[in-house]
Design brief:
50% helix, globular, 9 strands, alpha/beta, seven-stranded parallel beta sheet, single chain
Length: 304
């Protein structure tokens, strides 16, 4: 307060401030600054609180299929369960068949009317010839209405990581998002009902992360790819999801706190924002964090 009082007294006593037009200019600048930040907090934090998922089946089509990559655990598992609850048939893609079967059993027990299909996909092999052709062959004949690009991996070290680990991180986090989206775009756009693509990025795409620079860079790729195609396809709702910490294996099952949410929180808020926003941090705590990072000076947030 003393610092604010000092600047107020200094400004009020200056000859510059005695000129009415300059007072009006300073007032206008302050008003614009406050308006911009109010708009940002409304858009990022407040307005999404009033979103709801609505009747997704009516919007995207009955007896249609949702594809979820990285479907065996965490956010992917929650998307499988939530979309099955809505009435969508589910295509699960992951490398671990046993864990996928566990999710499939859970779906069948809770939602027996829902059909499921398992596609074993180790996305570390995504650069190999024929990898995506093999996936697409297993999707023939399915009316696919939703694609959830969720698969991803993470490590923090940079110098400590092997060259193969770096390659795997870039391959898994980037190539499936790009190629599956490209392969399905035409089919999704031509449907009579609307379609949707949900891309899981990260708040790590907002600013460079010194503790995980490659992971952060791959999430920028996910986010930019998602937002880059949004205006090109009129019949497809595309959204980029940029959460912070989520209680999954990737965060060593970090318990919920001021920065950490459950996978269910991410999924519920993502589906509620689908078709209404081009990008969101998802859960309320993460939306507030994103607003804070975008608004406060870097010397406070610690990010550039």
């Amino acid at each position: 307060m003393q610092l604010l009082d000092f600047f107020h007294n200094f400004l009020a006593s200056s000859a510059f401030y005695q000129i009415e037009i300059w007072r009006d200019v300073l007032f206008s600048i302050g008003l614009i600054f406050l308006s911009l930040h109010l708009h940002r907090v409304l858009k990022v934090v407040i307005i999404p609180m009033f979103f709801s998922e609505g009747d997704m089946i009516s919007k995207y089509g009955e007896n249609t299929w949702a594809i979820i990559t990285g479907a065996s655990a965490g956010i992917g598992r929650e998307f499988c369960l939530k979309l099955a609850e809505k009435g969508f048939n589910i295509v699960l893609m992951a490398r671990d068949l046993g864990r996928m079967k566990n999710v499939e059993d859970e779906i069948r027990m809770k939602y027996p009317q829902v059909e499921t299909k398992l596609i074993v996909s180790d996305f570390k092999n995504a650069v190999k010839d024929g990898f995506f052709e093999g996936i697409m062959e297993q999707l023939v004949g399915l009316d696919i209405s939703i694609l959830v690009n969720n698969v991803g991996m993470h490590f923090k070290g940079f110098e400590e990581a092997s060259v193969q680990e770096i390659k795997n991180l870039i391959i898994v986090n980037c190539i499936p998002h790009a190629v599956l989206t490209r392969n399905l775009l035409s089919q999704l756009q031509k449907r009579e009902k609307r379609s949707a693509i949900i891309d899981i990025s990260s708040i790590g795409a907002t600013f460079p992360r010194s503790h995980s620079p490659i992971y952060s860079a791959t999430k920028v790729f996910n986010d930019f790819l998602s937002r880059g195609i949004q205006d090109l396809y009129s019949n497809i709702d595309v959204i980029s999801i940029r959460p912070r910490f989520v209680m999954t294996q990737m965060t060593n099952f970090k318990k919920p706190d001021i920065n950490t949410v459950l996978p269910e929180d991410v999924v519920v808020n993502s589906l509620a924002s689908l078709g209404k926003m081009d990008a969101t941090a998802g859960a309320l705590k993460h939306r507030f964090t994103e607003w804070r990072y975008l608004t406060l000076p870097s010397f406070i947030t610690g990010f550039k």
